[in-house]
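INFO batch 0412 | record 1 of 1 | parsing
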Amino acid sequence: MAEKATIARPYARAAFEHAHSRGHLAAWSGLLGVAAAVVADERVQALIQNPTVSSDQVVELVAGIAGERCDADGRNFLRVLAANRRLGLLPQIIAIYEQLRSEVENTLDVEVTTAYALDD
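INFO prediction complete | emitting C-alpha cells
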C-alpha cells in the first residue's frame, strides 16, 4: 500500500497544483472522486488490464461517466495516467489530493457522535 501511495503522490501533487493555480480545487475533487470510483469497479479494472482495450477507450469511459466534471484538462490528466498505466492509482491519488486540499483550506473532517439527534 505504501508503494502505491509513493507512486500516486506526484500525480496527486500535479493535479492539486494545477487545480489550485486555477481556483478549481472543488471541481477537481469532484472529477477525481468520480474517476476513482469508476476505476475501483472490478469491471473497469478488467478493462484496464485487458490488452485488447486501448487506454484511450478506458479514458473515454471514465471521462464519459464523469460528464461535465471532466474538462479538457481533466481528460489530459486521465490520458497521462493511462499512458503511464496509473489509472488504477486514482483512489490513492484522490486521497492525497484531498489531504493537500484540506491543508490549504484549513479544513478538517470530523465525526460527531451524540446521544440525541442534532438539527442543522
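INFO post-check: The mean pLDDT is 93.
INFO record closed
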